[in-house]
Design a protein that fits this description.
alpha/beta; seven-stranded mixed beta sheet
Length: about 325
């Protein structure tokens, strides 16, 4: 387990961690009050803190914003969690200060994201037995080196397949490749990059088109001979719990991209370098990419995988996901 993963697990338990010399606790799991609160620039923008000098300087550089307390643990969670904004609208007034260790502050917020928590932390004078450097947190995000750690025949509804598991040296979850229809890997092979979606893939959610896309892709891949890469990047990389929070915000009127940003994340936190590393490990250098998302095409090509053709995948549209699909078309550039 990498140092960042070890520290992230401590955050999830509610334990303090010293990140780059900065003693911090994750707000979401903190059981005690705190004095100074670090939040992301996205969350500070949502709270309209840009009129304060320290906040404005941080927002202009995309850095963490520091709020001066004291804060109760409950009040801090209300500040960190935008799904609470309607229930607890009268937050503040806040005083912002310059962050003394901006690199460490950014690493602490990134560590909360790695833990699947809201990106908000208390900074206190606390005793912490666990320490992690900003460089060790940054190492979690470097271009991954993936290794095949297991493979087995897997008959599925569309035919015989082979399931291959990959693990990264830098830590994180295992990712999967499913080879269907005996694909030839030395020519541009039909390939689908599919980010995990428990709600759509497993539970049949109608809020997205993920489930229908997954099953339609598997049928096409089996017929042509192709590769499905199943990437453990739930909710565009923000994790399952935060995806559910994003759903709450969508029900309040925010679109899928604004909801992620209001939570303090980027609109899309996924890393498709993972897919490129998996393809290289399989001996694939060129693909015909089964996608409506030109961003995936650009990401693979940037990572050194040639995309000879984009193959459309137009399934899963319905009444419940009409606004979601329109957001993908109008704001994310998806081609339907």
């Amino acid at each position: 387990m990498s140092p960042a993963e070890t520290a992230a697990r401590a955050f999830r338990r509610g334990d303090p961690v010293v990140v780059g010399g900065l003693p911090v606790r994750a707000v979401e799991t903190a059981g005690e009050d705190g004095t100074t609160l670090l939040i992301t620039c996205e969350r500070a923008t949502a709270l309209k803190l840009g009129n304060q000098r320290a906040a404005a300087d941080a927002l202009s550089s995309g850095a963490a914003v520091a709020l001066v307390g004291p804060f109760t643990a409950v009040a801090a969670r209300d500040i960190a969690d935008p799904t609470r904004d309607l229930a607890e609208p009268l937050k503040g007034p806040f005083r912002t200060i310059l962050v003394a260790r901006p690199e460490a502050a950014a690493a602490a917020l990134r560590l909360a994201k790695i833990a699947g928590l809201l990106p908000a932390v208390f900074v206190d004078d606390i005793d912490a037995g666990l320490a992690v450097s900003a460089a060790e947190v940054a190492a979690f995000d470097r271009a991954p080196t993936l290794h095949i750690v297991g493979r087995a025949r897997l008959p599925v509804s569309t035919g015989d397949g082979e399931l291959i598991a990959f693990r990264s040296d830098g830590g994180g979850p295992e990712h999967l490749a499913l080879l269907l229809g005996r694909p030839a890997l030395d020519v541009p092979v039909l390939t689908r990059l599919h980010s995990s979606c428990l709600t759509g893939d497993i539970l049949g959610s109608l809020r997205c088109d993920c489930g229908p896309q997954l099953h339609a892709a598997m049928a096409q891949l089996a017929a042509a001979g192709g590769v499905l890469l199943y990437l453990q990047q739930e909710g565009r990389g923000i994790g399952l719990v935060n995806k559910l929070r994003a759903y709450e915000l969508q029900d309040q009127g925010f679109d899928t991209l604004d909801a992620n940003e209001r939570l303090g994340f980027a609109a899309d936190e996924r890393d498709f370098r993972l897919a490129a590393a998996m393809l290289r490990a399989l001996g694939v250098g060129a693909v015909r990419l089964l996608t409506n998302n030109p961003g995936k095409v650009a990401a693979l090509e940037t990572a050194g995988v040639q995309v000879t053709e984009r193959v459309a995948l137009a399934v899963g549209a319905g009444t419940d996901n009409a606004a979601y699909l329109e957001t993908k078309r109008a704001r994310a550039g998806h081609l339907f």
